[in-house]
Amino acid sequence: MKKSLKIVFLLLFLATSFQVRAQKIGYIDSEYILNKHPDYKVIQDELLKLSQQWKKQAQDLDAEINDLFVQLKAEEVLLTEEMHKARLGEIQEKQKASQNFNSRIFGIDGEYYQKQAELLQPLQSKIYDAIEVVTRRNNIGMLFDKASVPTGLIYTNPIHDYSEFVLAELGIEENN
To answer: SUPFAM superfamilies, alphabetically (predicted)?
Structure first.
């Protein structure tokens, strides 16, 4: 009995000697923040113009291939077998060039995605810096992004939403 009483007092002493602090947790909506930022609209417009130019070039290549194929079909009766094979080879080369163009521009590591990353990187850095200031100012231990794909956030109480604080840190007013 005496031993168990000593253990209880020891545990009470240890429990009161350690300061237990709960971490503050919050979240932001990066998609909301990006859409409110005026620079994001400029970047989106620039990317849209670029993609439209590249899509036009791809469509022009496809139209050229289609025209060559129609022309080949129209002249097929007049061509020798060698001439037919040569024209068919030319069409296949153009098709391969078109595929390479599409892959180079719109592929996984294509110019479109490289340009997107290049344009968004400074804005993302600015937003990240603002997030860091807000988390330090509000003593937040963990901050989640509601817009990220596998968040696991099923419910979020708006009282813990720090998106407006980040927008204020970026100097963006609510009426934008």
So the answer is: OmpH-like (SSF111384)
pLDDT, greater one: 26 or 115: 115
Does a structural domain hold residue 11? no
User: Which of 8, 5, 26 lies closest to 164 in space, CA to CA?
Assistant: 26
**Number of compact structural domains in the chain:** 1
Helix (H/G/I), strand (E/B), else coil: 108: coil
Instruction: Write out pLDDT tens, residues 73-92.
Output: 998 888 889 999 999 999 99
Q: Say if 74 falls within a structural domain.
A: yes
Instruction: Tell me if 103 is assigned to some domain.
Output: yes
Place of tokens 């391969």: 96
- Cβ neighbors of 23 (< 8 A, separation 6 or more) are 141, 142
In a domain, 19, yes or no: no
Angle 38-75/111-137 helices, nearest 10 degrees?
A: 160
User: ∠ CA 114-118-124 to the nearest 5 degrees?
Assistant: 125
Query: Mean pLDDT, to the nearest integer, of 11-36?
Result: 72
